[in-house]
Design goal:
single chain; 3 strands; alpha+beta; 39% helix; 3-stranded antiparallel beta sheet; globular
């Protein structure tokens, strides 16, 4: 089973959310459905647009990578996104 770490943003592209899931399509749909919900960070800040993701076969490796990325500066996260998505286009989940 694949695991994904992913980065979403809000429509203005000024807030980032980093998460982990084993069902990327469903998780992005959940973020969209929860937009505006104040109980969650992604909902509160409307972070439902996918910008970046990585796939892993091992859950522990994915969790470690998520923790690593969450510890990065905003500039470093921006640079990572730009390596695969330089225009910061909202990605479709295949």
């Amino acid at each position: 089973m694949p695991y994904y770490i992913y980065i979403t943003t809000n429509p203005a592209r000024n807030v980032l959310y980093i998460g982990i899931t084993n069902d990327l399509r469903n998780r992005i749909a959940q973020h969209y459905e929860n937009r505006g919900t104040t109980q969650t960070f992604a909902g509160r800040y409307f972070c439902y647009n996918l910008l970046y993701f990585e796939e892993y076969t091992d859950s522990k490796a994915a969790i470690a990578r998520e923790k690593e990325l969450k510890g990065w500066t905003r500039a470093k996260k921006d640079a990572l996104i730009a390596t695969q998505n330089p225009q910061w286009e909202f990605l479709e989940v295949g």
